[in-house]
Amino acid sequence: MNASLIMASRSKRRSPFVTYIALSALAGVAMLAGVLTAVVLFSANQANALAAEHQQALLTTVLEQSAARIAHDQEGPTIWDESVRKVRSPQLDGQWLDANLGAWMHSYHGHDATFIVDDRNRAIYAMRDGRRVSPEAFGHDLSPAAIQLVADLRRKLRNPSPAEMNASVRSPGVIDLAMVGGHPSIVSVKPIVSDNGSPRQIPGSEFLHISVRRLDGNFASSLASQYALDDAHVSDRPGTDGDLASVPLTSKAGKTLGYFVWRPFTPGAMMIRRIAPVAVIAVLMILGMVLWLLQWIRRSALQLQASEAQSQHLAFHDALTGLANRALFDDRLSRALADAHGKTSSVALLHFDIDRFKTVNDTLGHPAGDELIYAMGRRLVEATRSTDIVARIGGDEFAIIQRGVTSAAEVEILCMRTVEALSEPFDLAGAKISIGVSIGIAIAPADANDRTELARKAGIALYEAKAAGSGRYVFFAEAMDASIRHRRRIEQDLRAALAAGDQFEVLYQPLYAAQSGIITGAEALVRWHHPLLGTMMPATFIPIAEATGLIVPLGEWVLERACATAVGWPINSVSVNVSAVQLRDDRFADMVLAILARTGLDPAHLELEITETSFIESAAKCQLQLATLRARGVQIALDDFGTGYSSFTHLRHFDIDRIKIDQSFVSGIDMRDGGSAIIQAIVDLAKASGMQVTAEGVETREQSAFLTEVGCNALQGYLLSWPLAVDQLDALFESSGTTAAGGTVRGDRRALTAARTKMN
Prior knowledge:
The chain is α+β, with helices and mostly antiparallel strands.
């Protein structure tokens, strides 16, 4: 009997027991649900009642505080010498009264009406809804109850009681609810009195300020908004609807003027409304539980099978793209190589890498990067045959195993097809994104028969493809492997040389003033005396040092050696080249200043040369580093100008002392065509920007003459001097037959050239 039949048999034997358990559980849950329902309903009613009581108490307190606030609003303009003089003036200033006692109370405090009465209770000023009206409105608007407040205040003023005053009340007053113009309102009466006792007034003869705030106007809407009251309004009848609550608006005499009505907050009802859907769903789930219990054994068996299949799939496929992962890729590549053994066809391994993938992650976020990975996988599948295997073997790395290859042309066709497919823009995060792809190719058995070796060589070809630019594919060649091995050997030897500290030498190539022939400076150039390979030029080992980070200790060594050597030299400056890797180090400026302090070289005699490309690409950190150094006097030169961005626009935000025209422009000077218009333009723009100009790579007298004529400040090149050792440069200073004056070696250029020729 197979496993499925055994499981079915066990399911049948367990059915009555499972049914009994299900029915018992259902009965228990039903009883518990009934008890919980009763408890919830009782709690909901209690919560509703407590919430209504809380809101009624809150509104009662708010109405009392609102009345007190109206009186407090009046105290500012009514306790004021100027107000006493203005209201008692024979000629009333209506605009002043509006701005201080009337319309201002409406616009700033929201009072609906304001009246001012004299010592005989005659109205002299009236404002309604922010506009001045006839004082006769006093008699029309105010009810007898409100007029009675005036009389009450008169008596209080004539017979003041200290018990009625407290720290929060600055002047006596009366407040009550009254009908004003048919509206239930808060009426507050305050005397207009002096703030320092002058002018003096007879108690009881003060002019009075009356403010009215209607409760059924914007006061009710403001209160509703502030305290989240639904359907709040003032009515002449209490809330008769069972869903409404109300607070009576009662005067101090006990007369009810109306009711503040609102729909109270019912947390209990809200709770029931939210719980009801959940409760219904729970009942339905309980009803369905019985059927689920009867069938769970069969479903469990099916789920177990599906889980095993899913686990097996996940073990050999990438979770994001669904493509083969590295484990499956290695297995399929090994099988493909085994199948191709002894056959005429070959196996091609294509190693893919997305160009600018990090930029997509940094600008659009990792979700967009994942979306790009997924879309790229789909396009690779569409561009390949069903017999080819597409795999994702790393973050943004893919591979294709192309079987049955009979010629390199077939691989090229696949590469061109995939490059074309991936060059189409991708829709990512609502934007059109174009990327490039680099492909390295290795073919078995021509390049390797072993899976690991074939993958290594495809990786080497990929490295070369990326170095060649975006959208390239490169076939592996043995020379690439030799180049990689050579680079690795140079790196190892470079580390050993830095540790030993005795294989490097700094040479110095002088810079000459174009007009006078004076040696104004010298550029420090490092040489590596390799014990086996001999003297190595910087172009051989500097790129490797930059790629591995070794340029940082090497650059620090060269800088310190140059600064220490240049102390006391009769020249303006010593120039030292700086790598982009060094500029990106936050400690670079501190390191330079520390070396200057140790060696004693004046910061003004140090010039740092930065290549144009590294200057622009490291602009963010470069600006801060250079600003710190320039503030201490260090000079900055832009080297190889013209080979990178070649734009003065990029430099306007940076302070540069000098630009050095690249030797490729100097070597292109053709005196038959008038020299070089490009160099003339560079010199003119540099001088207009306040920069010095040095031309490097000067090798002929014609070049020297032209560069001097167009206005270059300094010249450097083999025509004038080769890079010299320290003792050679000292001898050159001595052979000039002059002494240091103003920080420069002065002498005839021909004499300096003759001395240089003699030493070389």
